[in-house]
Amino acid sequence: METVVQDRPHADGRYALLKVERLNPTIGAYVSGVDLTQPYGEDVAAELRQALADHMVIFLRDQPLDFAAHRRLAAVFGEAHVAPSTKPWRVPGFDEITKMHADHTSKYVAGEDWHSDMSCDPQPPMGSILYLHTIPPLGGDTVFSSMYAAWDALSDRMRAQLQGLTATHDGVKAFGGLVPEGMTLPCTSHPIARTHPVTGRKALYVNRGFTTRIDGVSERESEALLGFLFEHVQSPMFQCRFTWSPHAIAIWDNRCGQHMAIWDYFPQVRSGYRIQIKGETPV
Fold first, then answer.
1. Distances in Å between the alpha carbon of 5 and those of 24, 25, 239?
2. 7-to-19, 20, 25, 27 alpha-carbon distances in Å
3. Is residue 245 part of a domain?
4. Is 55 tagged catalytic?
5. Is the model's pLDDT at 13 over the cut of 70?
6. Which of 117, 121, 170, 253 is catalytic?
7. Is residue 268 in some structural domain?
8. Cα 267 versus chain centre, distance
9. What is the pTM of this model?
10. For the chain, what is the mean pLDDT?
């Protein structure tokens, strides 16, 4: 059973319209008090953005979105990011919406290892909005990890070593063999220590799904250091876990978090749609 503690900003009046409740002390919050299927004002939009900045990932339940409502929600956070690798799964007429579906015929599911969405892109998406209308009777949770906490938990010497280094993020690692033959996938280097443009906090920015090597060091050094960092980000101390319900929504910040979809429900059906939000060049 999930334990919910009242969110601290409620006490200082930061949220006048929404109810925001922490999922745990490190990352994640439940948001209620808004019907996202109906139009809402900039005052609500501003509180949604604030909740995401405060908690890195926010969850809303009982929100049966159609494509237009999903698009409207995405616009709260910015312009849609349409990644080349999503082309095979786009919704006709809504290029920014990607179908996320798994059933008894699936050979893989999207995001079944720790990752930050499309970190291979030159300007990776700042956020993602996943809406699931159909969930399995058991299983299918998503786990989120705070990269603020992961960075802060490193020793001073390790942070000093990583500061200023970059790492290569390659789309082939995640999507090779899944996209049409001949499609060129992005491959980009980003700082290992990323500064969040809104909060100003440092976050660890390497992930098992896309990162292939640390630039400017030997292959052996890169493998050893990445191996350590990939394990480090999985610490339960940095995490929250969301159990889905029909018509639930998760909105997360890719700049300071990672996530993993747990594929423990085969051959049951888990289905919905995702929109990603444009981001900036990591610094």
1. 8, 9, 16
2. 9, 6, 9, 11
3. yes
4. no
5. no
6. 117
7. yes
8. 25
9. 0.91
10. 91
Q: Give the rounded distance of the alpha carbon of 129 from its chain centre.
A: 8
Hey, which residues does 142 pair with through a beta bridge? 242, 261
- pLDDT tens column, 182-228: 788 899 999 999 999 999 999 999 999 999 999 999 999 999 999 99
Separation CA 24–CA 126 (nearest Å)? 22
Q: Return the HEC string of 153-186.
A: CCCHHHHHHHCCCEEEEEHHHHHCCCCCCCCCCC
259 tagged catalytic? yes
Are residues 240 and 87 in contact, defined by beta-carbon separation less than 8 angstroms? no
For the chain, the domain total comes to 1
- Residue pair 140/177 in contact by the 8 Å Cβ criterion: no
**Is residue 283 in a domain?**
no
Distances in Å between the Cα of 256 and the Cα atoms of 12, 197, 202 are: 24, 10, 8
User: Do the beta carbons of residue 250 and residue 277 sit within 8 Å?
Assistant: no
Tens digits of per-residue pLDDT, 86-144?
777 899 989 899 999 988 888 767 667 899 999 999 999 999 999 999 999 999 999 99
Grouping H, G, I as helix, E, B as strand and the rest as coil, residue 78 is coil
> Quick one: tokens of 155?
């020793």
Q: Which domain covers residue 98, as residue numbers?
A: 5-277
pLDDT per position as a tens digit, 147-188: 999 999 999 999 999 999 999 999 989 887 777 777 888 999
As to burial, measured by CB atoms within 10 angstroms (0-12 exposed, 13-18 middle, 19+ buried), residue 14 is middle
Q: Is residue 274 among the annotated active site residues?
A: yes
Is residue 38 situated within a structural domain? yes
- Annotated catalytic residue within 55, 81, 194, 274: 274
Active site residue 95: no
Tell me, what CATH number does 174's domain have?
3.60.130.10
From 55, 70, 115, 247, the catalytic residue: 115
